[in-house]
């Protein structure tokens, strides 16, 4: 891998997009390497992912403008699909993904962060969909995910006006869950990931699936999805151990969730 770093520590995998000379811009190679990295994650041992960018200036400054500059209509569509496919893999990845946004999150950078389950950022982060200034639309899911994550009106204003926003505004509109000083961002992401990783892994996966699948359908069907995934938990050792420990009032044991099984 030339542009992706991946390391695992204590059940948490950290993926770093590592192309700092281009502010971690996403060219086809970065997208291919990210795709291959996700395929290689060992889901028996890793319970949460962190996605970040190399350096402290940029998370991802967008899709690679140099690569896009000469694309034909068909190639443009294919490039959009390439990004969309990888981002969708991230969005539907079985375990939670935390975006630790350490600087510019523009265009494809904002879009990849929106494919993650949770976004936290550093104080120097900047978000935006500047594509119309380049003569294109957001093409890696921005027109769809931004309008779903913040209000459609705010998404439309940001996209039509190509207006970038700073971390505090991203927090105010609900695009990020928290803002930290630069040096605290990764420790805070690791702390959150460790908290998630301590919980029953099948239950956490089922929560992600229930929320994601449920958001794509109407409430009646969404509740059926929830019921099914809730029911599935009762076949797991985690449920027996977790509830058994509670009933035994063994608070220490309650934290020791059994290894991942039955998924
Ligand atoms: N693609 C390719 N290269 C990029 C890039 C991008 N999106 N963003 C930055 N770079 C490169 C620059 O070309 C520059 O390379 P060189 O040193 O070889 O010249 C290097 O990264 C550093 O960038 P700057 O010198 O511009 O750094 P800066 O601090 O002055 O500005 C910035 C930072 C404001 C982020 C500016 O680089 C910028 O505006 N970048 C483009 C942001 C953008 O428009 N992103 C959206 C892309 S379109 C998209 O993503 C489409 C989609 O939805 C799929």
What does this structure look like?
- It is a single chain.
- With 263 residues, this protein is α/β, with parallel strands linked by helices.
- The chain folds into two domains: 4-198, 2-enoyl-CoA Hydratase, Chain A, domain 1 (Alpha-Beta Complex), CATH 3.90.226; 201-255, Lyase 2-enoyl-coa Hydratase, Chain  A, domain 2.
- 49% of the residues lie in helices and 16% in strands.
- The protein is built from twelve helices and ten strands.
- It has helices at 28-40, 65-68, 73-91, 108-114, 142-149, 152-161, 167-172, 182-198, 201-215, 219-233, 237-247, 251-255; strands spanning 4-9, 12-17, 48-53, 58-60, 97-101, 104-106, 118-122, 126-128, 165-166, 178-180.
- Strands 1-2-3-5-7-10 form a six-stranded mixed sheet, with helices on both faces. A four-stranded mixed sheet has the order 4-6-8-9.
- The longest helix is centred in the first third of the chain and has 19 residues, at 73-91.
- It is globular.
- The two termini are 29 Å apart.
- The model has no long low-confidence stretch (mean pLDDT 95).
- Acetoacetyl-coenzyme A is lined by residues 22-23, 25, 61-66, 83, 104, 106-108, 111, 130-131, 134, 138-140, 142.
- Residues 22-23, 25, 61-66, 83, 104, 106-108, 111, 130-131, 134, 138-140, 142 line the site of acetoacetyl-coenzyme A (CAA).
